[in-house]
Amino acid sequence: MAADVVAVLEHLGVDEMVAVGESLGGGVAVLVDELRPGAIRRMLLCEPVVFSPEAVATRPPGTAPGDGGNFMSTIARKRRAVWPDREAVYESYRTRPPFDVVAPEALAAYVRWGFVDRPDGQVELACAPEVEAMIFEVSGEPAGAPAAWRHLDQLTADAVVACGNDTDLPAEWFAAQAEHAGAPLVTLAGGHFFLQEDTDAARFDRLESTEAIRQLVARYALATDSRDLDALVGLFVDDVQVGADARGRDALRAFFDRSLHEVGVTILFVGNHVIDFDDADHGRGVVYCRGEMQVDDRWVIQAIQYRDTYERRDGSWYFVRRRHLLWYGAELGESPVGLPPADWPEHHTGTGELPQAWESWRRFWAP
């Protein structure tokens, strides 16, 4: 591909240029610099496919992007090539990664120029899936990404390496590229295709996702304290793992039914909540919680930490897993169990309306 670029430049009579190389294009730009030393004056490499064989080996073939071409070639061969029209392509692509975060005008341009019209009135990928797959495979061969890596420390162009803060590739790869090229490394908002991403929309989506996950955690406490098992299990993915051998919300409901019958009143107060996103649809969280609960005739205080895994499916965030860790549990000096009614605001001490005010609570404890 680098030779093709050089041929086009010679045909157009272009002697000097500034290059922006993204992904595979970054590797091509590096090899153009090798074929035409000095032709590229400045170069911006955006998560370029420029890897040493040792770096690629850190991802076994067929497991993830950047594994040497196998993973991406498998995906490419599964791509649908023929569509009724460009509108159908656009509507389908805009809801699926990686295009769901791409700016509308960038996606529209891709659909316009990345597809060709067919005689039957339909449209077809300009680059056939098999051809795209072969390009990914060739990029991992010695003449591809490894060759570009070997030339990185001999670049004649002034280069900058840039990566996204939400990329699905290891950030250390791009740090190694920058070090090898003697170039600065810049981290920008977005994923692998940050140049085309609608970063304003991505930031807004991140804010919405953060609030949705915080609501998820708060609703867990509410559903637990009110014994609303339907609401509680609905906060988890439908194929949630329950114990070593069971899966699904029915199994999770049975677990909660058993465990919550072992205690009486519960009050979960959510505190600190730290959320880290792995990508737009997956995240992890650490939640601090103070729990109060009735255990027989005792009142127990617990300091709890939850370690969560979250996933967005069909536009909604769910728990994949909640791991309960305990700092301590201790009995309260005076237990509220058995106190006379407070009849608040007449009295400030005594028992109040909760949890009996919840219909779900009464239903949970009904004979």
Structure explained in plain terms:
By secondary structure, the chain is of the alpha/beta class. The chain has 2 domains: 2-81 and 128-197, 3-Layer(aba) Sandwich (Rossmann fold), CATH 3.40.50.1820; 202-364, Nuclear Transport Factor 2, Chain: A (Roll). The protein is built from 13 helices and 13 strands. It has helices at residues 2-12, 24-35, 53-56, 70-77, 86-93, 104-113, 129-139, 145-152, 171-181, 199-226, 229-233, 249-261, 359-364; strands spanning 17-22, 40-46, 82-83, 115-117, 123-125, 158-164, 185-188, 241-242, 246-247, 266-279, 282-295, 298-313, 316-331. Strand 8 and strand 9 form a beta hairpin. Helix 2 crosses helix 8, helix 4 runs antiparallel to helix 7 (129-139) and helix 5 (86-93) packs across helix 6 (104-113). The radius of gyration is 28 Å and the shape is elongated. It starts with a helix and ends with a helix. The mean pLDDT is 90.
Question: Which helices and strands, and how do they pair?
Answer:
Elements: H1 2-12, E1 17-22, H2 24-35, E2 40-46, H3 53-56, H4 70-77, E3 82-83, H5 86-93, H6 104-113, E4 115-117, E5 123-125, H7 129-139, H8 145-152, E6 158-164, H9 171-181, E7 185-188, H10 199-226, H11 229-233, E8 241-242, E9 246-247, H12 249-261, E10 266-279, E11 282-295, E12 298-313, E13 316-331, H13 359-364
Parallel strand pairs: 1-2, 2-6, 6-7
Antiparallel strand pairs: 3-5, 4-5, 8-9, 10-11, 11-12, 12-13
Helix pairs in contact: 1-2, 2-8, 4-7, 5-6
β-strand number:
13
Name the beta content range: 25-35%
The shape is: elongated
The helix count comes to: 13
Helix-strand topology string:
HEHEHHEHHEEHHEHEHHEEHEEEEH
> Which sheet architecture does the biggest sheet show?
4 strands, parallel
CATH topology label of the largest domain = Nuclear Transport Factor 2, Chain: A
Range of helix content: 25-40%
Low-confidence stretches: none
Give the N-to-C terminal Cα separation: 74 Å
| Radius of gyration (Å) | 28 Å
**Which CATH class of the largest domain?**
Alpha Beta
Strand order of the largest sheet: 1-2-6-7
Integer average pLDDT: 90
Q: Indicate how many domains the architecture comprises.
A: 2
**Broad structural category:** alpha/beta
